[in-house]
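Entry 14. Ran structure prediction on the chain below.
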Amino acid sequence: MVNLGNKIRTLRLERHITQTELSRRIGVSKAMVSSYELEQRSPSYEVLIKIAAFFGVTTDFLLGLEKNRAISVEGLGVKELEIIAGMISVLKEK
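Output, structure tokens:
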């Protein structure tokens, strides 16, 4: 689990949430979130899946096996997908 703690911390800070808020969302104590971020402990498979789902990334991304983040577009229509694809194109051009 290369840099798992750093990834969790970075994702949490990007969302502007506290360790306490993340702990409530994934069903562990604040102390456990802190220990994950400090890489003193590793989350169980179940908690790892909850963390990935909460942040909208894959477990492979968290574990360093995949470099790209995944964004779920489940439930979006064709029009919404076209808008998102257009936004991505504009951002990549910058």
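Residues 78-93 form the longest helix (16 residues). Will compare against last week's run tomorrow.
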